[in-house]
Design brief:
Layout (H helix, E strand, L loop, with lengths): L20 E6 L3 H10 L7 E7 L3 H11 L3 E3 L2 H5 L6 E4 L6 H10 L3 E4 L7 H14 L3 E3 L7 H12 L20 H4 L12 H12 L20
Parallel strand pairs: 1-2, 1-4, 2-3, 4-5, 5-6
Helix pairs in contact: 4-5
Length: 227
Amino acid sequence: PEPCSTPEPPKTQLGGPPGPTRWGICSAGAISHDFVVALKTLPPSEHTVAAVAARDLGRAQDFARRFGIPRAYGSYEELAEDPDLDVVYVGVVNPAHLPTGLLFLRRGRAVLMEKPMGLGAHEVTQLVGTARERGVFLMEGFWTRFFPAWRRLRALVAEGALGSPLVLRGALGFALGGVPRLREPGLGGGVLLDLGGYGLQMALALLGCSPPPSLWAHGILHETGTD
């Protein structure tokens, strides 16, 4: 991909100092809950949650009351039309990432998309193409990319302190057999689209092959057909 342009300076409010980044939250589910809990640990002068939307207005209102969010909407379209937002966090289920992401991007909204960005390369291509066409920010939510330990590891590799990395071996395991989203194809299930992406993005970043010249996957499929 082409290099990103220089970030825009923070917006000022009525000629004063830069105001906080105003977040819109798309979906009132468990992942959005965790995201807002994390966001609330930051100074309100830097980040504020301005609005939340869910497909059910009651759920959005409950979410808003829990976190002190001033505006709640019963549709994602209403959130997309809110003029007082800087960026939207999209925490919907995997199959809804493409249509929901396109909704916000086409309205010129910056988007932080919960991983995975899409169900496959064809969906990611549409999202990235729309973001470039509209000239707006789009990022996949791999929070580990911002850990100090991760930044230090990448610096060591870039400096050649570890030689030329040839192999990365990693393991990440949780008992998720009873979680519907992992088992069901209709929910975008499977370990690669869930937690497996963390290992893959680390390998791509550290081994210097993006895209890789070839890729093999070995595993066992669930009876539903997901990995």
